[in-house]
Amino acid sequence: MSIANKVAIVTGASQGIGAGLVKAFRDRGYRVIANSRSIKPSNDPDILTVAGDIADRAVAERIVREGVAKFGRIDTLVNNAGIFTAKPFTAFTAEDYAANIGVNLTGFFNITQAAVAEMEKQGSGHVVSITTSLVDHPVDGVPSVLASLTKGGLNAATKSLAIEYAKRGIRANAVSPGVIKTPMHPPETHGFLAALHPVARMGEISDIVDAVLYLDSAGFVTGEILHVDGGQSAGH
């Protein structure tokens, strides 16, 4: 199939990594279904925007249903939407827990289940989830229990999906970033955050976009957790 006919879903698509992914997929000729809670309609006829919270199953199902109705298929799903709440473990509230579980796990489950059901019909597809290197390399001074609980679950689910669907033409991979320079990190924190990585800089949005595009084109790669973290997971 030509890339011009391929269709990608990107969640968390209104800014940061998600917006970078939408642009990169369009630059490659993909048609894109872009979702976030507050995403605005696009002037590009090959971008379908669907606003809403993927923790709501009806929203996740609508993303896939409207995407198939407009473009006819789903080839790639990028689970980019996520919440990171940095608090000491005992300071987490029930609301913090519910919000992280809702987007990071329930949202993943809802949209991935709906997308994979469509991929099964065509006998091909690819799921990429954005997780975090903090799962396997926690950092002193960066409290991350809820991130590890939820994103660690996505790493494990990625491997399970990869094996369950390997013979059905559907691949599953994850990109595990270090700290990426996005609007969520104020400039005054950049020095501290850069020092968390052995390469002594923060990651750029383009670093993650390049990793996702690599995985999407790498037909013999499935079940991979690709660390894009400036050496953070390798050690200090």
Automatic annotation (TrEMBL):
The lineage's top-level taxon is: Bacteria
Question: Which Pfam family is one of those matched by this entry?
Answer: adh_short_C2
**SUPFAM superfamilies given in the database record:** NAD(P)-binding Rossmann-fold domains (SSF51735)
Bilayer-crossing regions: none
* Alphabetic keyword roster: Oxidoreductase
Which family is this protein grouped under?
A: Belongs to the short-chain dehydrogenases/reductases (SDR) family.
Q: Protein name, please?
A: NAD(P)-dependent dehydrogenase (Short-subunit alcohol dehydrogenase family)
- According to the entry, what is the taxonomic lineage of the organism? Bacteria, Pseudomonadati, Pseudomonadota, Gammaproteobacteria, Lysobacterales
